[in-house]
Write a structure and sequence with these properties.
Blueprint: E1 12-18, E2 24-30, H1 32-41, E3 45-48, E4 53-56, E5 65-72, E6 79-85
Length: about 100
């Protein structure tokens, strides 16, 4: 954990990826406590910037993420969380939050 670089708000972005097929499911924010709980529990925890509180993915929806691996980039300022996704990852009901295509 001491290797990670958090921003001035104490947060680090976490890209969540399907461990089996590489699909990017979502991007969320973690603080040091969320990272620790994620690693210790094997389920994803995030920091809600709007509610200013920790939340565990799936506690409300039942769409949990079982963590297979947590990696960090060369600058230690972004996480890659590889998960086994149960149900949709997006709050809209889509499998991935990246289900829309930007047209030119």
């Amino acid at each position: 954990m001491e290797e990670l670089t958090f921003d001035d708000r104490g947060l680090i972005p976490a890209v969540v990826q399907d461990a089996d097929n590489g699909e990017v499911l979502m991007v969320a924010w973690m603080n040091d406590e969320a990272v620790r709980r994620t690693v210790e529990s094997g389920r994803t925890w995030f920091w809600s910037r709007s509610r200013e509180e920790l939340w565990r993915k799936g506690d409300t929806s039942g769409h949990v993420q079982h963590v297979r691996e947590v990696r960090y980039d060369c600058d230690a300022d972004t996480l890659l969380v590889k998960v086994e996704q149960v149900g949709p990852a997006c709050h809209t009901g889509q499998r991935s939050c990246f289900h829309r295509v930007l047209e030119s």
